[in-house]
Structure formats: C-alpha cells, structure tokens
Amino acid sequence: MPREVFITGLGFITSIGNxxxxxxxxxxxxxxxxxxxxxxxxxxxxxxxxxxxxDFTVDSPSWRDWTWPARxxxxxxxLRGLAPHGVYAFCAMEQALADAGLARADLTDGGTGLxxxxxxxxxxxxxxxxxxxxxxxxxxNPMGVVSSIAGTLNxxxxxxxxxxxxxxxxxxxxxxxxHALGYAIDEIRLGRQQxxxxxxxxxxxxxxxxxxxxxxxxxxxxxxxxxxRPFDTARDGFVGTGGATVIILEDASLARTRGARAYAxxxxxxxxxxxxxxxxxxxxxxxxxxxxRRALRDxxxxxxxxxxxxxxxxxxPIGDRAEALALRTVFTxxxxxxxxxxxxxxxxxxxxxxxAMEAGFCALALHEGFTPGNPHLLNADPACEGLxxxxxxxxxxxxxxxxxxxxxxxxxxxxxxxxxPSSP
Length: 424
What we know:
- By secondary structure, this protein is α/β, with parallel strands linked by helices.
- The protein has helices at about 20-30, 75-80, 85-100, 120-135, 150-160, 175-190, 205-210, 250-255, 285-300, 315-330, 345, 355-370; strands at about 5-15, 35, 50, 110-115, 165-170, 195-200, 245-250, 265-275, 310, 340, 400-405, 410-420.
- The strands form 2 sheets. The protein has a 10-stranded mixed sheet with strand order 5-4-6-7-1-8-12-11-9-10, with helices on both faces. Strands 2-3 form a two-stranded antiparallel sheet.
- The chain starts with a strand and ends in a 5-residue tail after the last strand.
- About 60% of the residues are buried.
C-alpha cells in the first residue's frame, strides 16, 4: 500500500513574510508585498512595481557584500558557492528544519532526499561570464558555475547538509517546484525515501525579471496596490518577486514515531501538458483541466469534496482566462463551488518557486483553519462566471484543498492536500 505523506516542516522567505506566522497573518489580512521598484535605473523601462523580500541585501555579485538576518549562520565556504536566491533558500531551509524538529545529523543516513527548483541565477552567470571574457577566458571564478547554473540549489544544499539520499533539480519554468513536490511525494509513497525536502527559490533583479517584459508578461501598472490582480478585468501582467520556500515531507509512520507535528497530508497529484504553444496557455486550459482531474483521481476525491483551490492565477490576461475556464469545467459544471484564491495578488509571481510557496500556503490554511481571499479583485473577468472568488479571507476551516501550477510549454501540475488527522 502507498505510504501516507505528511508535511512536517515549513520555511518561508517571501515578500509577505519571512516566517510562517507572518505569512499566515498576511494571507488572513490580505496584506500584499508589492512596492514601487526601480530595476535598473532606466526611467524608460515601463515596469515600475515589484514584490521584494525584506531584511536581505543580495544585490551585489560579491558574496562579501551580502547581508541577511542575524539569526542565520551561513558558513563562508558555503556562501562562496551560493547565488543570491541561494541565501534565501539556506535561510528557509534552516527555518524549516527547526520547525520540523530536525538537526543536520538527521539528514545524512540516506533516508532523506532533496528536490530543488530554480532557474539558476542569470545575474551571477552574466557577471562571471563578463569577468571571464574581460581576460579572454584566462581567469574566472572557480565557484562561478556552481553559483549560477540551474542546479545551484541542490549542489550547495546537499553538500552543506550532507544529504546522501535522492538529490536532483527540476526545471519546468513556473511549474518547477510543483514538479519537485509531486515527485517527492512519490519517493515516499513508493518507499524509496522516508523524508524529502523540497526547495523552491528565485531572486528579484533585472536579469531575472525584465526579459519577461518583451513578452508583455509583466504588469506596467505603477500602483503597487493594484498591479497584481488575478482574474480582474483590468489585469495586465504579473508582478515579479523573489525568495524561497522549503517544505519537509515525511512518511507518516516516521512522523508519528518521532512525535512530529503534521501541517497537512499530501494525498495526490497530477500533471498534464497543453501541447499547444511554447509561451502561452491553451485558450481553454486543456492541460490544466486534465492535470486537476488526474490529481483528484489520484487522491480518490471528487470535485465536490474540494473546499479551496489555490489557483496559479498570475494576473496575466491569457493565463488567468484559461485557468478560469478549466476551473469552471472541472468544478462549476460538476456543481462544485470551492473558494478560489489567487495568492499572487499578494505575493507577486515567484516563477519556479511559486508552486512550493503556494503549497506551503495551502498547508497553513489547512492547519490554521482559513481560506485566503482575493483582496485586489474588483471586477471579475466574465470567464470567471460561476466561480467562487471571495474578496475577503474566510475563517471556514477547509478539509481538502487543491493547488495549481502552470509553466512554459504547457506544463501543468496540481496537488491535493488534506487536513492532517491530528488537526482539530
């Protein structure tokens, strides 16, 4: 029989808070993390808003200039191999381990694996290549590769923590950390690992975000309070953010044996591709529709049993409409009306970390007993007709939630989470 999978630890470094308590309060209060932002000192750039992480300074290419909260101790030998978003990930990892009641020594026996998601650091890659080219490639930073390419998180974290179980990275754009989480679930269900750590992290800078501007994917709204408004008729693109989320999964029997708190149980997941366009969703959300159905089938639940959906909902015109149509097909046409929220209206879009971040939000909602609202939604797109899109957060305690993610090339991933048996 497949093993049960519990979430026993969470770590957050985000635009709406750098710990679970602050994140929970922000989600409950509808408090966003957006602010006016100058990406590159060029007034002609039309993107004026971002959702930065507070209490960190990582905008220099030199690790010697970086600062982070004093509670975290990052050794120099580890710091030399990190990218800016690696600093976020390290701190979120320390937070999650403490939250789960785990020490570094608990991770080294082969029973713990590590799945990570990030796009790497274009910022650091450009810096290291420019340095190498300046010397006609006669000189270069010996840590330049491991600090900048897409596997930087798994390289550095596995080495620092001595993790000897399954370790790999996932790259499927904005579905990356959702893929990492799905396959981590399977590692435990199949008995290959007793514990999995899932990490999603990205950085906020011009090199990471502004390449999306020529695609017209970024909001040009200069008002931080309305720039990110999923499902609204006036939405015009996403707002960028950085940070990290770490989720610790454990075989339920292991969690029970060591008396670990369970935030939620992961009971199913599904994925499907649009097979349509490289950079835009299928107009009717065909792949996401099928991914949701596969996740529900894997979890052995019906649409009517889902209380809450955390939508991918990036605030782009095409993406939100496609997701709305998919949600209507799966839920509304089946007579189901779960509360649907687009939390990127508060956080901004974390790219490859978004799926893990929002799965973490779902775990908090299940454990703390609330459903996030849509505070920036003023006029819902007609495509949302029949969907339950509450503006205010609700105090109704959900039992089952669905988390959606979509990425370039039509990659769609969905997870089903259930309130942990020990939760009130």
